Predict the structure of 3-hydroxyacyl-CoA dehydrogenase.
Amino acid sequence: MGMMDGKAVLVTGAGRGVGRGIALEMAKAGAAVVANDLGVSLTGEGGDEGSPAEQVVAEIVAMGGKAVANHDSVADWDGACAMVKAAVDGFGRIDAVVNNAGNLRDVYFHKMGPDDFDAVLAVHLKGSFNTSRAAAPFFKEQASGAYVHMTSTSGLIGNFGQANYAAAKLGIVGLSKSIALDMQRFGVRSNAIAPFAWTRMIDSIPTDTPEQQKRVDGLKKLEADKIAPFVVALTGDAGAKVTGQIFAVRNNEIFLFSQPRPIRTAHTADGWTPETVAERVFDQFANDFYPLHRSADVFTWEPV
C-alpha cells in the first residue's frame, strides 16, 4: 500500500523541475495525478516547447500509474476549474492540490513596470487562489483535503530584483494560513513550502562576477527532486494534523519557519505624539530591528 493509494492529486507546473518530481513521486506513492503545465517560457510567452505535461503523464503510465495532462493556465479561473474537473471526472475525486506553477519577471523595483508586477502575481498568488478555490467545494463535501502552496525565501527573507515575486510568495503564506483557518472545520489542511532547488526558474540568475558565479555553483547542488518526498508525506494521511505551517526543503534538510509575532512593545499612558515616538520608540526597538538580509545571508552553509 502506497501512502497515496486511492487518492487523486492536482499538481500545477508539473512538466519540469520541482513539479515534475512531485507528480512522479505522487504516482509512485499510488496517487492518480492531474499533471498541469502550460509548456511556455519563464515569462509566459510561447507554447512551442512541446508538452512537458504529457511527457510526465507518459512516465507515470509507463510505471503503471494513472495520470492525465492539463494545459490550462492557473491564472484563469475557468482553467483552474477545468483542472479540478479533470481529476473528478477522470478519477472520481480530488484529495490534494499542489500549487507549484510559477513564472519570473525579475527586475529592480525602480525599473519594474505594472505588467511585470501583474503577470507574476496573476500566476503565483491569483493562480494559487484559483486552483484552491476550485477544489474547495469537493474538499468540503468529502470532509478532507490538503493544499500545498509554494512560497519562497525571496518573500520570507528577501532578494534583489524580485519585488513582484516576493510580494506574491509572501501573499501565498497569508493565503495558505487563511485557508487553513477557514477550512479546518471540514478536515482540510493547508501548508506552504519554500523549495530550494536548481530549476529553470532560477537558471536566469546572472553570473557576471565571481561572487555571483559562486552563488550559482552552490544553487546547482540543490536537487529539484528532493522536494517531492516531503510534499507526499504532507498531503498523505500521516500529515492530517499538520496545517497552517511554513516549511522549507533544501536537499536533505527540512525546516520549519517561524511566523510573525510581536517581539517588543512600547507603551505610554499619555498617548503618543510624533515627537515622543521619535524620542522613545525607535531607539528602544533598534536592537530588535531585522537587517536587510537576503536569502543567501541567512542560508550561508553548503546544502547537504
Summary: Residues 188 and 303 are 33 Å apart (CA to CA). The chain has one domain: 8-259. DSSP finds ten helices and eight strands in the chain. The domain at 8-259 is CATH 3.40.50.720 (Rossmann fold).
